Amino acid sequence: VSTRLDAPVVLAPRTGVAARRLAVPIGLVLLVMAGFAVPYLVADNFAISVLTDCLIYVVLALSYDLAVGRVGALSLAHPAFFGTGAYAAAIAAQRMSLPLALQVLFAIVTACLLALIVGAFAFRLSKLTFGMATLGFALIAQLIATNQMSLTNGPLCISGLSAVGSDALRSAGFTTAVQSYYLFLILAVAVAVAVRVLVTSRIGRAYMAVREDEPMAMTAAISPLRYRMSAFVVGAGIAGLLGAFYAHHLTVVCPSNLDMSYTVNLLVIVFLGGAGGYWGIILAAFVFTAVPEWLEVTPTIRMLIYGAVLLIGVSVMPDGIQGAVGKLRRRLHSGRVGR
Amino acid sequence: VALLLSELINGLVLACMLGLVAAGLALIFGVVGIVNFAHGDYVMVGGYILYECYAVLHWPYLVAVIATVAGTAMLGAITYLIALRHLIPRPWHTQLLATLALSILLQNIAQKIWSPSARSVATPFTVRSYRLGSLTVISQQELFIWLGTAVALCAVWLVLSKSKSGKAMRAVSQNREACTVVGISAGRTALLAFTIGTALCGVAAALVLPMQNVYPTAGLPITTQAFVVVILGGMGSLRGAVSAALVIGLVSALSAGYISTGYTDAICYATMILVLVFRPAGLFGDRSQVSWVGL
Questions:
Q1: How many angstroms separate the CA of residue B26 from the nearest CA in chain A?
Q2: What is the pLDDT of residues A194-221, one digit of tens each?
Q3: Interface with B, mutate which of A2, A126, A139 (most B CBs under 10 A)
Q4: Are A126 and B101 a contacting pair at CB < 8 A?
Q5: What ipTM is given for this predicted complex?
Q6: In chain A, fewer beta carbons within 10 Å around the N or the C end?
Q7: What's the predicted TM-score (pTM) here?
C-alpha cells in the first residue's frame, strides 16, 4: 500500500517548451488583471465578499500545501496557525497598541514559533501519528482560545479592531468591502508568486526529493527533517500573516477562527485540487468556497451535497483535479502519438 | 473523598465508552486497514436508534439495546459495502477525506431526520442508585455500563481468540496477501471486522445515552477522543486501546474534578502528545513500525 502523498510526475511534451514556460506568468498576469477589474464589473457586495473569501482560501490552501503536498506531512494544525496569527495581531493592536506593520510581524513570528514547537514534537512520529498529534495541538489551541479569558477574552471574542483600508480611499468611493477585496487580492498574488518561486527553486526540488524518496534525499545530503520543518514553518508563517489581515477584515477575532471546519475545507481544497499542485489548488479554492455560497439551499442540504460530492470526488479522482487533468491530457497525447 | 470517589466512577464510565468505541476503531484499523473518521458518528446514529426504540416506541430497555446494536451494525455493513470497501488500497489521506465526507453525510442526514436539537433518553435506572452511608455512590445505569462493557469486550475477545473467523481476522491484520494465498477471503473478513467494530459503537451508544444527550454533531468529539485512545494504545492494538481508554477516562475525569472542566480535553490531548514523544509507537504498539516512511 502506497502511503506517499505523491502527485504523478507529468512529463512535459517536448514541443512548445518556451510557450509552456511563458504560460504560467502570462496566465497569472491575465488572472490578476481580471481580478483587479472585478469591482468595476460587479457592483454586488455579496459577490465581492464571496470572492474575498475565495482569495483568503487561495492563500490558506497554498500555504497548507507547502507542508501537505510538497513534503508530504499531513498536518491538521493549519487553522491553529491562522487563528494564532489573528489573535496575535488583535492582542498586539489592543493590548500593546502597535502599528499595523508590527502587528503583522508579531503575528508571523508567533505563528512560526508555534510551528517550530509543534514540529519539534510531531516530526518525531510516523505519518499517521503526525497527523493526529497536530490535530491534538490544534484542538488544544482552540481550547486555550476559548478558556483563557484574560488573554483572548474567550467566547466573547476580541472585537473593535480597526477595519481594513483608509478613510481617504473610502471617501474616494471605494467601500470597505472593495478595499478588503483588493488587499486580499494583492496578498493572494504575492503569496502565489512567492510559493511558485519557492517550489521551483533548489529548495522546492529538495522538498520533492524528501517527499518522494527519503533515503535517496539523504544520500544527496538533504536533511529530511530540516526541509520538512522549513516547509511546515513557512506555511505556518504565511497562515499567520493572513490571520493578521483577516482579523482586521472581520474586525473581531473569535475562538471559531481556529475551528476544525477550516481544516476540513482545506483538506477538500488541497486534495481535490491535487496535493503538491498549483493551479488545481487555486481553482479548487475558488470552486469549493464560492459554489456552496451560491447554492441557495438550506445549510443541511448544502452540507449533504458537499459530503456526497466529496465522497464521490475522492473515489473518482484520487489525485485531485490537477491529477485528473494530467491523466486526461496524457491519454489524449498518447492517443495522438500512437496512431 | 466523596469527590474523588465520584470522579473515579465518572472516569470509569467514560473509560468504558471510550474503550468500546476505540476497540472498534482499532479493530477496523488493524483488520480492514481503514482510518475511519466517521467512527464516532455511528455512536451518534446508535443514540438516535435507541431514542426511537425506547422513548418513541416504548420497547423494554433490553430489547431497545439489542435493536440499537443490530441497527448500528447493519448501518456499518451497508456503508462499508457501498463506500468504504473501495478505500482499502488507498493512502491514508484519501481514507481520511472520504470518511470525513461520510461523517458529514451521516451528521446532516441525522439533522434532517431528527433536527439539530438534543434528545435524551431517561431510563429509570439512572435515578435508582446505591448508597454508602450518606453519599450516593453509583447508579444502576453506571453498573449496567460497566457490566455491558465487560460482556461486550469479553465477547469480542472470545470471538477473536477462539472462533475460526476471529482467527482469520487476526491473520488478515498480520498479513493480507498470505491470507488470500491460504484461502481466507480478505473481503469477507474485513466486512465482519467492520460490522463488529460498528456494533461496538452501538453498544456504547445504547449504554451511555441514558446518561447523556444525543445531537447530530455528537460524533466528532467521540471520534477524536477515540483516535487519541487508539494512538495512545498503539495503532491496531485492542489491548492497547482498552488500557489507553482507562488512562484517558481517569485522566479526564480527575482533571475535570481537580483542575478545570474547560481544559479536560486539552489535558487528554497533551497526555497523548507527551506519551507519543517518549513512546512513539504508543503504549502497546510495535516499536519497529515507527518511521516516517511507514504509516
A1: 14
A2: 998 998 899 999 998 888 888 888 888 8
A3: A126
A4: no
A5: 0.82
A6: C
A7: 0.84
